[in-house]
Write a structure and sequence with these properties.
four-stranded antiparallel beta sheet, 8 strands, two-stranded antiparallel sheet, 21 helices, mainly alpha, 4% strand
Amino acid sequence: MPHRVNALPRPFFFFIFLLFLCGLAHGRFFFGNQSSPHDVAVISDGVHGGPHNSTSPHLALKLLNGSLSAEVDGACEETYGFLPCTSSVLGNLFLILVYGYLMYLAATYLSNGSELLLEILGPGIVGGLFLPILGSLPDAILILVSGLSGSTETAQSQVSVGMGLLAGSTVLILTLIWGSCVVVGKCDIQNSFAIDNKDTKGFSLTGSGVSTDIWTSYAARIMVISVIPFIIVQLPQLLNSNLEKDIAVLVSLIVSVALFLSYCLYQVFQPWIQRRRIAYAKHKHVISGILQHLKKQALGKLLRDDGEPNEEIIKKLFQVMDQDGDGSISYSELRAMIVGIRFDEIQLDRDDAVGKVMEEFDTSHDSRIDLQEFLDGISKWIHEAKRSGDDTSNNDPHTMKFLFDFHSRTKQEHDLLGAGGQSDEIIEGVENPKWTTFKAVLMLLVGTLIAAAFADPLIDVVDNFSSATSIPTFFISFVALPLATSCEAVSAIMFASRKKKRTASLTFSQLYGSATMNNVLCLSVFLALVYFRGLEWDFSAEVLVILIVCIVMGVFSSFRTVFPLWTSSIAFLLYPFSVALIYVLDYVYGWS
């Protein structure tokens, strides 16, 4: 599990104390007998007398040429009336680092508090509703604040910060972080699978990489579906129509909220769905194992020359299993047969396996399997194995290669579902549930308060830094702010470095889930601001980049579970491509 923050760190108090000290310093401009504001000097009344040839009783310190005029003409406004502000480049850069660290701290508290809450309450409601929302809360708050500032004109100018954060966070997750997870989590690839904790091939582009389970592919497909609201909101621009923009924004908002609720419901029921799928895969593997066992007992004569089940051989197998000779197979006799079959490749509850086989064979519900029920059950299994195999495997009934193929496929299906690594993470009981609950709630509360308190100052500082450097606010928020709010970046990379299929699956599922929440929850907040505040939707280039990155990485990850090292280069190249594309479309072709 990722490292948890158990107490408020000292840097947090240091930064808060520093900000309050900065807010306590006040001053005023004193013009005296100067002929113009540009001749103003810094005044100190701590000494008597003044400079020569001056009627002022104060000591005047002349400033560098033109340095104060910028302060007078474009003086900044203190957020909340006490937080520091500046119009200089270095000053704003320092404040961006301070506020960015505080937002990162907020995201960390929310993440760690969510994990503690998950330990106590388990998945389901907590994992499906709270964790996705809390993980995207810092981004959502920053987006909300960017569109609530001041008048409509001010909000329109600052809302680009929210769009920059939304696009930058999604692109960062699916490019740099995704590629880094492949690099640090790589293992040797053998037979189309990455071998856990075996990394001997170095940086082989095709011989090393990561493997994930099928649920990770499902998460990537869901992420692709989540871009639908972006397509809807862009329809007026695609159709060159200015009359339906408000309607498009409203429809996109409704669809985005609906997708968010659907995704939360899927997360709630996904553990139950996963358990059912894994149980079914294990049962199929038990079937294939029993057929393989009976094939050996029958010396390869389980089928007749015409490919149909050999009933005479099956009857003899029934008699062997009927140890007491009463004409039926009891629960204990069936269990003795299944226990004798080695299922070392999967974690099997043999009592559960016996119960499922008994339930499937015992059509008379008398808790015993008679001869006819055994013949019908085995024949059904054989036909099922033949249907699931290749046609070329069924040509020779004497080799019965289809049984081996069926056994291999059921094992592969079991592995793709991620069932083989269930014991990788040891789940321990919570020693003090009340204290852990209190600590989790405290972390969530502190994280939320920090994010809410410093989101507005961060937006203002980004705007001031943009004015001081003439760098568009979008690019500052696109590159810098996602680093502050994406606390999952470090935890994802550290988790992937464990070099196991299960941890890789969880890591990439988390990345796809974060991108999905950006596309539904954060976009819902952004669209609500645009619609209810009457703002202009003019982000065609940004939407195009989000669509390209999500669709390319989503489709690429939807139909494969093995990612060789060369796939990380695609992710890495998409990041500079995204920045360059936005610049060209916005500032060369004038899309925005």
